Amino acid sequence: MGAYILRRLLLIIPTMIGIMIINFALTQFVPGGPIEQIAARLQGEGDVFRNIAGAGGDSAGAAAGEYAGARGLPPEFVAQLEKEFGFDKPPLQRFLSMMGDYLTFDFGESWFRSISVIDLVKEKMPVSITLGLWTTLLAYLISIPLGIRKAVRDGTPFDTWTSGLIIMGYAIPAFLFAVLLMVLFAGGSYWKIFPLRGLVSDNFYALSTWGQIKDYLWHITLPVVAMSISGFATLTLLTKNSFLDEINKQYVMTARAKGLTERRVLYGHVFRNAMLIVIAGFPALFLGVFFGSSILIETIFSLDGLGRLGFEAAVQRDYPVIFATLYVFGLIGLLTGILSDLMYVFVDPRIDFERRAG
């Protein structure tokens, strides 16, 4: 197993290089770069240059102070911006310099926020951790028992009407369900039970420990439920089909013939084999929810997380944020793939990736 893990770790290097090369090359052809973004802001805001001082530095801001919106950007100001952003260097040199910094996890500063990328990600992380962790746990806690019960009672009215509800939930877009929850439970038209926005209240740090816990859970209820609704269908049906496949195998019939109770057969023999694919997929599922948290859900509930950060960085062409998050999240994604394989072995020690690789 050690040799297999080592090979997988070594494969991360060329994979990450390929990911970064492709995305870096794409940005060279995308119109509306950071300099064009600043030009558009200036043309829309007249002589308000103080807002871009962080992007171009004090010297760039001083040069921009002579700009009149109708005449366009002065060439010397554009040259200063290109130097500040590094666009005065060839693309290959910029790419190699960026990758050299990333190897030491030096991601620089955001061009439009005057804050380091690491600090920016840390600032948005609590929202994404909240949505990712609680959404995944809620999906597993409900979907697995429901899927097992549907497998045991396959073809019964219970299986039929629960399947209908699950498919309906899957068909409803998460953002539409979020709006419905707000209308019903956040003071839209009916009950004002849950807060409308934010992760915690303004007086959160003045509350007691128990008060902080209640306030936190009070705020995350609606966004987590909205995020989870579409994930129930896949996980529930995956659990059901996995159990049905195992229940019909020969070893189950043999266990029943020995006189074992149905509960002993189900949880003593079927459970470990049926849950292999479900449990082993937990890291990948959590990562998908964690880093793919809905931009619309965050916007609807006024949650400032990584979803909105990535969207705003792409719109503003904030390349340090885009490439740094791509690098970190891609690296975590590849490591999660290895973790998923280890979960397979942990759940079922009979799996030997080393032998398969050989």
From TrEMBL:
Main subcellular location: membrane
Domain of life: Bacteria
Its membrane topology: Multi-pass membrane protein
Keywords from the UniProt entry: Cell inner membrane, Cell membrane, Membrane, Transmembrane, Transmembrane helix, Transport
ABC transmembrane type-1 domain segment(s): 125-340
Keyword check for Transmembrane helix: yes
Keyword Transport listed: yes
Gene3D superfamilies recorded: MetI-like
Xref: InterPro entries: MetI-like, MetI-like_sf
Pfam families linked to this entry: BPD_transp_1
Gene Ontology biological-process annotations: microcin transport; transmembrane transport
Subcellular location: Cell inner membrane; Cell membrane
Transmembrane segments: 9-26, 129-148, 160-186, 216-239, 274-301, 321-347
Entry GO CC: plasma membrane
NCBIfam families (UniProt xref): PRK15133.1 (NF011712)
UniProt family annotation: Belongs to the binding-protein-dependent transport system permease family.
Name the record gives this protein: Microcin ABC transporter permease
